[in-house]
Structure to design on (1020 residues):
């Protein structure tokens, strides 16, 4: 029965099937057309978009770091250059047992044991084929150690790269600053493209302030990479056009600093804590910028270890602290010439009038004794003699006559209470106290007695050695106010042309009667003459020095106590200060010297200034012969604490 | 008629001889030729997609030989045997699928493989033949178009293996198996009303299906809807394959020169995403060529189906032809980003032996059903 039905329907079924087949055939063709349409969109209409994406996939830009600009002193001696350093690297994919390898490297002293764990973490998180630096710089000894054992460390190798090298080591370190590994803070400020291939960045000093000039412009090289980011080579028709832009080296800096003078000054202060700043009053060029103790900036450029850094940081003498720019000290008697200038300018005192000094000063209506450093007093002194003998009583009285506001005006004009504008920055402003400042800070009124002690550079008044040198330079130049600077010229790396920088002058200090400069300068000259406070240190100089000594109290004495060097611990002894310029009649150099806890300015600080003058004016560098700097390819790290 | 008129020249004699050989072997010349073209093109592309891995390519050649043997052997089997074997094949398939569910080994994160010591194979592949043949066998015995009751029985025949495969989980194969069966029912002339109702039910089933999907399957659907959502994660496949195709342009970057493929940006470049390699290296033209070959295969197979002598043969042939289309469409659609990423290989081109064997086996069956004619064509 069924059979008949099927036979009957045979042609009908066939027709039905063919109909459906045609329908599905057409449907299939239409759906395939949809796919082809999609392909048309991708490959024809949006081809360029996808071609770009594909290019971006496979081409990676590799940064080519620029060579950092060099730094020269005024004679053209290289103070900072780039020399090859040898770096120990590990390529993870070539090392079967990373932890074991690191432990064995530590065992032979190539890496520090405490670095094993952090390095292991670093290697685990990185790409397998990218070299991980294990140690930034290797000493000759370490290279030799590695060379004989290299077969034990497959996948570990030595790579050469350029590192910053300061041939003078510790000399001038506080002016130069240093470069060190780029930190997260740095990354927030800089253009990451420009630093993509760089390991180091200027941290302080010149290296930091002139980072823009020194760094140069990074280049790049396009390389072909696969999906894992591994660099691959494709040859023949498959090769893509890869772009390369060469980096442009950073510009070279030329300084006004004279390394010979710098070294003389550093040596004169050796073994003590202190600072020397020497400025040319005509140009503002800083000839010497000394802060001792100092440090070796080369340690930072080649990867300072945590232990080494801690040694420097925690040293009680604070070698990393730039005393010349950031150390603020009571300027002591070195402010007396400036007080005298203020007194003359505001006409509160006749320079020739004699005032009697009997060893102490009292304010009207007060019984408090403001003592002179000379217990028996100086007797009758005029202004010149008061400066020469550093009579405290004279200046107590002068300060009282001036009042704090006029003192403030005069001192501010001479650069106190604010940075001098030195081109490397990092200066502390010191402190020029005023009643308003005191009210704001201590919520207290200003007492007349506080004005009196400002007259001899004590009390709240604080200044940096840089400010003192700057003020001395202004007096030397009779009011012309040149801004101190380290860099005098910039040499363009590309063209080789040296661009000289003109001195920058700030608002001059103008006196109603310019003859008043002579009064003060005469007083300062008499400091180094018979009867002056600095006669010993300047004896025999073939040029005249105008100067002022200073001794700043670190430790306050009670009313009836007597200061005694023996009774006061070394760190609480007075700071010795000295400001000077020479030759007195046509000043070429102004100097400020500070010796922390050095005692008297005349005995501790003045001889240092004398040697700086001798070096600069007479070319007497004999005390510290300048060795010819020999760039050592691989510096052996100086032992910590030196 | 062919050999009566063509005995004058050597060429004709050769032609005649090969025609005779094909006839003897129950093979269809045009279909065989277009399949051979697809396979040859596939090997050409795979050589590039495999990169430096020549072993992989040789492996594929080996599987291809096996698949050709399977096709030749199946082409020799008399159609009544095939028809009678359909329920057995289907039944065996069900048993093996259950066995896999219980004892199968896990490969690529899914439980699909049955380890028979000698060969590891996926029983789901059997069902690519088993389900349409079973459906056709069932319909063959009954008048057409199938009644609603028959349609429901057929639905059950399809749904059971499809469900077993989908839960392995292997959505791509389940889809192919189900569509092969459904195509039989549709070709059998299921009434349009039932089809519409069925589609409506399917639409209603979508939320239900979503509920039962694996997390990675849901992820794929979501990624299809918005691949940019996670460009380095689940959307990566889709984005990179579109970049590969789009960057190829009309003429392509040249064979072996596709940076997306050769530099390993394109995942699964020798298997599911090989169509993107074609697009990148041979451009729109290369893809058009392949699609043209596919349409030739499908067209010829559909023609053969319509020429077939009985319902069983017609339905099986038609289903195989259209399943081949589903393969091609789903794969190219997914690679070009108009369909979600499901594990469907590019037929006869993607690396992977099992699919190749199954596909050529289905064409062997197709040829057997057409070339064992009782009436002589002459």
């Amino acid at each position: 029965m069924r059979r008949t039905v099927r036979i009957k329907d045979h042609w009908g079924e066939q027709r039905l099937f063919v109909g459906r087949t045609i329908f599905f055939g057409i449907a299939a063709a239409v759906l395939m057309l949809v796919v082809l349409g999609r392909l048309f969109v991708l490959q024809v209409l949006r081809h360029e978009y996808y071609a770009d994406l594909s290019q971006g996939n496979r081409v990676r830009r590799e940064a080519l770091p620029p060579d950092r600009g060099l730094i020269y002193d005024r004679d053209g001696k290289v103070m900072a250059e780039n020399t090859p350093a040898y770096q120990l690297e590990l390529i993870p994919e070539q090392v079967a047992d990373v932890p074991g390898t690191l432990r064995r490297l530590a065992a032979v002293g190539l890496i520090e044991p405490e670095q094993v764990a952090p390095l292991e973490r670093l290697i685990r998180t990185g790409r397998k084929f990218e070299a991980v630096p294990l140690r930034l710089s290797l000493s000759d000894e370490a290279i030799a150690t590695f060379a004989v054992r290299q077969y034990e460390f497959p996948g570990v190798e030595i790579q050469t790269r350029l590192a910053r090298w300061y041939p003078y080591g510790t000399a001038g370190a506080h002016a130069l600053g240093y470069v060190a590994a780029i930190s997260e803070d740095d990354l927030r400020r800089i253009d990451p493209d420009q630093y993509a291939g760089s390991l180091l960045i200027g941290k302080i000093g010149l290296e930091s302030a002139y980072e823009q000039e020194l760094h140069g412009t990074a280049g790049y090289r396009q390389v072909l990479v696969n999906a894992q980011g591994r660099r691959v080579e494709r040859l023949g028709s498959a090769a893509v056009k890869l772009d390369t832009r060469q980096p442009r080296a950073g510009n070279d800096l030329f300084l006004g600093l004279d390394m010979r003078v710098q070294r003389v000054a550093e040596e004169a202060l050796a073994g003590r804590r202190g600072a020397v700043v020497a400025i040319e009053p005509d140009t503002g060029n800083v000839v010497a910028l000394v802060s001792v103790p100092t440090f070796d900036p080369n340690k930072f450029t080649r990867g300072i270890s945590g232990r080494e850094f801690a040694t420097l940081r925690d040293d009680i003498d604070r070698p990393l602290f730039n005393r010349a720019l950031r150390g603020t000290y009571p300027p002591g008697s070195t402010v007396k010439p400036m007080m005298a200038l203020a007194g003359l300018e505001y006409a509160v005192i006749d320079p020739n009038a004699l005032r009697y000094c009997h060893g102490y000063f009292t304010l009207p209506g007060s019984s408090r004794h403001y003592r002179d450093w000379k217990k028996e007093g100086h007797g009758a002194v005029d202004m010149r003699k008061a400066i020469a003998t550093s009579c405290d009583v004279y200046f107590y009285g002068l300060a009282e006559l001036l009042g704090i506001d006029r003192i403030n005006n005069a001192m501010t004009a001479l650069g106190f209470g604010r940075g001098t504008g030195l081109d490397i920055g990092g200066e502390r402003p010191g402190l020029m106290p005023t009643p308003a400042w005191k009210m704001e800070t201590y919520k207290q009124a200003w007492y007349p007695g506080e004005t009196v002690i400002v007259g001899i550079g004590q009390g709240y008044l604080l200044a940096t050695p840089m400010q003192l040198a700057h003020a001395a330079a202004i007096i030397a130049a009779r009011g012309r106010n040149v801004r101190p600077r380290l860099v005098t010229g910039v040499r363009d790396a590309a063209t080789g042309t040296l661009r000289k920088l003109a001195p920058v002058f700030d608002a001059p200090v103008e006196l109603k009667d310019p003859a008043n400069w002579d009064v003060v300068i005469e007083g300062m000259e008499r400091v180094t003459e018979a009867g002056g406070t600095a006669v010993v240190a300047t004896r025999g100089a073939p040029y005249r020095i105008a100067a002022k000594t200073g001794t700043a109290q670190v430790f306050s004495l009670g009313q009836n106590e007597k200061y005694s060097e023996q009774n006061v611990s070394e760190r609480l002894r007075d700071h010795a200060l000295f400001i000077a310029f020479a030759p007195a009649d046509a000043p070429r150099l102004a100097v400020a010297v500070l010796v922390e806890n050095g005692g008297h300015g005349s005995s501790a600080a003045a001889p240092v200034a004398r040697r700086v003058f001798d070096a600069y004016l007479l070319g007497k560098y004999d005390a510290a012969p300048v060795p010819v700097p020999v760039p050592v390819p691989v510096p052996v790290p100086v032992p910590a604490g030196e | 008629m062919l050999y009566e008129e063509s005995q004058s020249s050597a060429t004709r004699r050769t032609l005649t001889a090969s025609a005779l050989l094909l006839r003897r072997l129950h093979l269809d010349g045009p279909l065989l030729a277009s399949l051979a073209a697809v396979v040859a093109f596939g090997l050409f592309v795979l050589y590039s997609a495999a990169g430096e891995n020549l072993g992989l390519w040789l492996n594929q050649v080996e599987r291809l030989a096996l698949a050709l043997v399977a096709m030749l052997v199946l082409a020799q089997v008399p159609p009544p045997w095939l028809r009678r074997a359909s329920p057995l094949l289907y039944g065996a398939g069900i048993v093996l699928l259950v066995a896999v569910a219980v004892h199968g080994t896990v490969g690529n994160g899914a439980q699909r493989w049955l380890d028979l010591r000698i060969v590891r194979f996926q029983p789901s592949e059997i069902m690519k033949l088993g389900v349409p043949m079973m459906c056709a066998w069932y319909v063959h015995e009954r008048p057409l178009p199938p009644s609603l009751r028959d349609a429901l029985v057929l639905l059950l025949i399809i749904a059971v293996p499809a469900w077993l495969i989908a839960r392995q989980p292997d959505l791509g194969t389940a889809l192919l198996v189900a569509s092969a069966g459904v195509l039989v029912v549709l070709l059998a002339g299921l009434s349009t009303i039932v089809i519409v109702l069925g589609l409506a039910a399917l639409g209603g089933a979508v939320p239900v299906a979503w509920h039962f999907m694996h997390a990675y399957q849901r992820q794929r659907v979501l990624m299809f809807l918005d691949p940019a959502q996670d460009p380095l994660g689940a959307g990566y496949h889709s984005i990179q394959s579109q970049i590969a195709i789009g960057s190829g342009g009309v003429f392509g970057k040249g064979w072996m020169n596709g940076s997306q493929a050769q530099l390993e940006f394109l995942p699964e470049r020798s298997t599911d995403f090989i169509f993107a390699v074609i697009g990148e290296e041979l451009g729109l033209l290369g893809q058009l060529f392949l699609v043209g070959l596919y349409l030739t295969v499908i067209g010829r197979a559909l023609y053969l189906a319509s020429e077939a002598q009985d319902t069983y043969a017609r339905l099986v042939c038609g289903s195989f032809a259209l399943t081949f289309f589903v393969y091609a469409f789903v794969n190219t659609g997914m690679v070009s980003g108009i369909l979600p990423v499901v594990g469907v290989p590019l037929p006869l081109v993607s690396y992977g032996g099992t699919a190749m064997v199954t596909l050529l086996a289905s064409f062997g069956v197709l040829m057997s059903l057409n070339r064992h004619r009782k009436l002589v064509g002459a």
Notes: Chain A touches chain B through 47 residues (CB under 8 Å).
